[in-house]
Amino acid sequence: MKNTAKNKWSIILGGSSGLGLATAKKLAQHNFNLIIVHRSRRSDLEQITADFEAIRQKGILLKNYNVDGTNPEKRTEVIEDIKTWIATDTIAVLVHSIAKGNLKPMHSEIEKELEHQDFTITLDAMAISLYDWTKDVVKNKLFATDTRIISFTSEGNTKAIPNYAAVSVAKVALEAITRNIALEFAPIGIKANCIQAGIVDTASLQMIPGYERIKDSALSRNPNKRLTTPEDIANAVYLLTMEEAKWITGTVIKVDGGESLQ
Amino acid sequence: MKNTAKNKWSIILGGSSGLGLATAKKLAQHNFNLIIVHRSRRSDLEQITADFEAIRQKGILLKNYNVDGTNPEKRTEVIEDIKTWIATDTIAVLVHSIAKGNLKPMHSEIEKELEHQDFTITLDAMAISLYDWTKDVVKNKLFATDTRIISFTSEGNTKAIPNYAAVSVAKVALEAITRNIALEFAPIGIKANCIQAGIVDTASLQMIPGYERIKDSALSRNPNKRLTTPEDIANAVYLLTMEEAKWITGTVIKVDGGESLQ
Amino acid sequence: MKNTAKNKWSIILGGSSGLGLATAKKLAQHNFNLIIVHRSRRSDLEQITADFEAIRQKGILLKNYNVDGTNPEKRTEVIEDIKTWIATDTIAVLVHSIAKGNLKPMHSEIEKELEHQDFTITLDAMAISLYDWTKDVVKNKLFATDTRIISFTSEGNTKAIPNYAAVSVAKVALEAITRNIALEFAPIGIKANCIQAGIVDTASLQMIPGYERIKDSALSRNPNKRLTTPEDIANAVYLLTMEEAKWITGTVIKVDGGESLQ
Amino acid sequence: MKNTAKNKWSIILGGSSGLGLATAKKLAQHNFNLIIVHRSRRSDLEQITADFEAIRQKGILLKNYNVDGTNPEKRTEVIEDIKTWIATDTIAVLVHSIAKGNLKPMHSEIEKELEHQDFTITLDAMAISLYDWTKDVVKNKLFATDTRIISFTSEGNTKAIPNYAAVSVAKVALEAITRNIALEFAPIGIKANCIQAGIVDTASLQMIPGYERIKDSALSRNPNKRLTTPEDIANAVYLLTMEEAKWITGTVIKVDGGESLQ
């Protein structure tokens, strides 16, 4: 994969904010064209349009689809549309940055408790959708002969956190799906990895009950004395798209400044 | 938990064959009364009836419900029925032995490939149902003040195996759910653990493509030179129901004679 | 292994205090005779003598050797002495509870820093000695045909803790040695496991700088709202000596009331 | 860390063959000057001299010390010598590629068995020496303000392999030391990681009994259908020296083409 080639595309699912947007900016610096799938509210569109325009200024092409990437019909529509314009270009990178988890306690006298459907919805959006996209892009023969698939997990993969069961389940599911993608799609040149991010102060984090405590705890644990930034994660995504990373597949890589060490 | 008490009950989900049936026999030897939920075909009923009768001969009570334990209406019916007869007795053990996984490749030119729904169905049956049952039994205040929840996982929790992605995902999901149950239901006396079984030569195994190769490989890897038996696993379940196991919670315990070591 | 047999012996290395002593008491209740190897100061001997006498009152035999169990000559002497009196009895359990770790920072302007020798001393005492004892007892044909080897590890196996590097290294080394013992001694009936204890308020803990903070943190994390006791661990050792545990080998089992979950 | 700077040095311990030599070549391409510590036999020196000369042709400086890097006196001598010529340059990368493990069975009627000393020697060379070098280079204030320490581990970190106990122990020890280095040296800008290499067909591998079987098994397991090469690992080392990797620390990263997945 030559990163300097103008005809390499990266799909970023969830690329209008947080880790996804930072990744878009970083990959654009390294000459990837971008297909960004995002679900954004009208009130955020002005900012997002400006962000995308700034990325285009770097001299790459950016196509965006403001649709729900977890909806199968929308996924089909996006892929069909891509086929109308992509010609002989290929997609060399797929980044999954969809965060849509339901946070509820398993057991409470006062709060609404986690239900079967909370697991299903969270798993659909945060885990199984990675397989759905991978399979459809493969079927439509849009991937390059050397493709990198990258998604994001968290320390919730081994820890239990109150209210966080559905997201924890989605994260371990995402990792298991990644392992099987790395195994079963290897014959067609796909490498798949998860990046385990430290605590990042994003909009998603701020919706978690106890958000301030989580932030403070991460700060005090981190031997490098700051939280993880979206740019830290985007940097790691970029490393995994490089030629030198082609033998790394089926793994979970911690990018947290050592936060999970203690 | 006094194991000698006649009024302690164990629910076994999937208790008419394999690991579940072996567990029923073992717990009956140690004076647990049994509620067995199983989904059995007419052709198997004669054998199952005989098995259950033999268990009753050990002097314990055995109630069985031949229904689909993963169906929410059936679950409600079973629990409502239990309430009609259980009086002041309590349920001190919940064993989850439901195996219903869809085995398909992620990528194949010739076979039917894994679909979104395969993940959903497998996750519902093999993972989320553990939470559904736990929550409903808690809500109906049927659990003892010291309760043990035990479910079964496999080496698919860290390994990728062709065709096995949906089951791998369900196993890691089950483990994550178990960790959160151990955390969030601790205040009401619940301990929850997974047993990671070695390869057992059950009906479920025999449905996996490449079954003979899996068996041979497990045999040759196992330093104790045999496959895992349902009785090995039932023994470990019994250990986890003992008074001495009350500080073990939120863990995955390998019971495989060392098969996963190499 | 019949636990009721009077002629089964358990060696406990480090059996005069903490986890080792609690284990001695528990195994004595279940009719194990005991060989206790301990290194005790003169000032502690009165208490230890009383503890051992109380154990003997349970009707089992207890032999104790007040020697440094990590010294190879002393090990040879103890084993030679055992051979003079054990006749046709066998050793069915070996418990390793030797804690002798050097706690120093890797990097400090003011404190003495960790040196090469600190690793060597800690590894010798807390890890390699398990192999030394196992090998020598095997060579002298003193083990039963079904033997259980049990040792103790901690969350330091995956976490980095300031000042604790040498002990962390010894713990992962102990676990790796245990895995190879489980593999390579399987043909002669040995099963080997580690118990990962939660924070126990022992003399060893009290020597760690920041001891109070470690205790408080463990308490606040533990979903079962107390620290781990020596008796919790002794209970788990007992479970691993039972007939029903014979298929559990080469594993690390957490016994911490869920403390490591979050 | 600007990789283009001429005044950045990398120390490579064990840099005359295998992973170390491949790493030297890769880092030289990216403008690192090299200090190579190696213990080479006279018969290999002609080849090694040619290799080093070829590296120098890339336009970087290469200093080599043919001494036993695990010997404390030699380590002191090398560091003292470096101080005589390094002036204001700094060492920004330390790569540990020392392989010197004793391979013996734990239990055998016919072969020489593993002894206490085999563990000690292997741990000294393959694990503790990483700390020794780190500490001494820190004490002599030779590290850059942003330094990357990289060492090599293997699947022996979780697997038990006959004859391989001492190396397995050294690998888990190396990983634990790396975690504590990442934690305790973070305040002075050090990041430390291990690369878990797949099976590489090196001289070290060829000394393992059963070498052909290990190679065949790795090949058949690897979804990307080849063994790992020294260049694969050198590529990953290079990634970890990049500016973009600065938030990755305290981790183990698999670089094996997916070999360990199944």
TrEMBL record, chains A, B, C, D:
Cited Pfam families: adh_short_C2
Protein origin, superkingdom: Bacteria
Keywords tagged on the record: Oxidoreductase
Signal peptide range in chain numbering: none
GO molecular function, one term: oxidoreductase activity
The family this protein is said to belong to: Belongs to the short-chain dehydrogenases/reductases (SDR) family.
UniProt protein name: Short-chain dehydrogenase/reductase SDR
